[in-house]
Specification:
alpha/beta
Length: 257
């Protein structure tokens, strides 16, 4: 479990708000997430059928909303749930399962603390001017992860740290794009070493009440080659409650490698 000091850092950087916001969206979208969740589960089950792994490691397990969790527990010898923070409800749910292990880890390999240490002293008055002194580490746990499932986290690994930096800097978006690209690339490089399932958004589509459409790219690197690739739309905010009355959809890609 993370230390109290580390948890305070995560709170200052907005990770608890992000996690709570996900379950809020899920509960208030009137079934808008069902198609996305079903597609995630079906893709992971296809990988289970293909590889029949003894161990599965889920990166970004979150609230377990997108996982075929019962099937993973039943069909594998070990399920490892990895996330920077685990909701208390999830910890209570899995603690009686003998073949489930829970780890709280920064899946970027330490980027969160790196960003915190290098930027926390800056403010709207004294601004950070470059990202060049921020080291982008690699996630490299010692244990063999078995089959990896990277679940809706690729674009969030760099998004939340970038948002924290943006509030304390006057750095141009071109430099942020390079930063985001490198973080995403290192995650994909790690997945490519193992049998894996990657589910990620690649773009967000905002539609205003007047019908105007804005597409925002969220993927800044190349996706890996795949044995199976599927695409679908995630109705993330079909009510338009949070984005100035714009509905939000994500274009999603699912890959079995």
């Amino acid at each position: 479990m993370q230390s109290l000091q580390y948890r305070r850092m995560l709170s200052r950087m907005g990770y608890y708000n992000y996690q709570n916001g996900l379950i809020y969206h899920h509960l208030n979208q009137e079934g808008g997430w069902e198609n996305h969740q079903n597609n995630c589960r079906k893709l992971i089950l296809k990988a289970l059928d293909k590889y029949n792994p003894q161990k599965v490691t889920v990166l970004g397990s979150g609230w377990l909303l997108d996982l075929p969790f019962a099937e993973l527990v039943e069909r594998t010898e070990k399920v490892c749930l990895v996330d920077i923070i685990h909701p208390p409800d999830v910890i209570s749910q899995v603690k009686h399962l003998n073949n489930v292990e829970v780890y709280e880890q920064d899946v970027t390999g330490g980027l969160i603390e790196e960003v915190w240490q290098k930027t926390r002293r800056y403010s709207f008055i004294r601004k950070l001017r470059t990202l060049s002194n921020i080291n982008i580490p690699e996630y490299n746990p010692r244990d063999d992860p078995g089959m990896i499932v990277s679940l809706n986290i690729l674009t969030q690994l760099e998004s939340l740290p970038a948002d924290f930096i943006r509030k304390r800097s006057n750095i141009k978006e071109e430099e942020f794009a390079c930063f985001r690209s490198e973080v995403q690339k290192k995650h994909i490089d790690y997945l490519s070493k193992y049998r894996s399932v990657l589910v990620t958004d690649i773009a967000e589509v905002l539609t205003g009440k007047s019908g105007d459409v804005k597409t925002i790219t969220t993927l800044f690197t190349e996706l890996p080659g795949s044995k199976l690739r599927e695409e679908w739309t995630w109705n993330f905010d079909k009510a338009g409650g949070d984005l100035y009355n714009s509905t939000s959809q994500f274009n999603v890609v699912g890959i079995i490698n």
